[in-house]
C-alpha cells in the first residue's frame, strides 16, 4: 500500500554558503563578541545573574524580622 508510506526527504538542503544565513557567522546575534571588553562584560553579566538570587536569599535571612 503506497498511501501508508511517509515521505521523508533524504536530500541535503541546498545553501549558497556553508552557513544558514547569507551574511556569515555572528551576523544573527545582537552583540559583537569580537570587541576588546566582551569577555569582561559577558562574565560580569553572568555573575550578576547567577549571584542575585543567592544575595537576595542571604539578605532575606539576615534582615530584621
UniProtKB/TrEMBL annotation:
Superkingdom classification of source: Eukaryota
Pathways per UniProt: Energy metabolism; oxidative phosphorylation
Glycosyltransferase listed as a keyword: no
Keywords: Membrane, Mitochondrion, Mitochondrion inner membrane, Transit peptide, Transmembrane, Transmembrane helix
Membrane topology, record value: Single-pass membrane protein
Membrane-spanning ranges: 40-59
Compartment(s) of residence: Mitochondrion inner membrane
One cellular-component annotation, GO: mitochondrial inner membrane
SUPFAM superfamilies in alphabetical order: Mitochondrial cytochrome c oxidase subunit VIIc (aka VIIIa) (SSF81427)
Pfam families: COX7C
Family assignment from sequence similarity: Belongs to the cytochrome c oxidase VIIc family.
PANTHER family registered for this protein in UniProt: CYTOCHROME C OXIDASE SUBUNIT 7C, MITOCHONDRIAL, CYTOCHROME C OXIDASE SUBUNIT VIIC
Protein's recorded name: Cytochrome c oxidase subunit 8, mitochondrial
Source organism per UniProt: Cadophora malorum
Gene name for this UniProt entry: COX15
Amino acid at each position: 500500500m503506497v498511501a501508508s508510506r511517509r515521505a521523508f526527504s533524504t536530500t541535503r538542503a541546498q545553501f549558497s554558503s556553508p552557513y544558514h544565513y547569507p551574511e556569515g557567522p555572528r551576523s544573527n546575534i545582537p552583540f559583537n563578541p569580537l570587541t576588546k571588553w566582551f569577555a569582561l562584560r559577558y562574565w560580569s553579566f553572568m555573575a550578576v545573574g547567577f549571584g542575585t538570587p543567592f544575595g537576595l536569599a542571604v539578605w532575606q535571612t539576615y534582615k530584621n524580622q
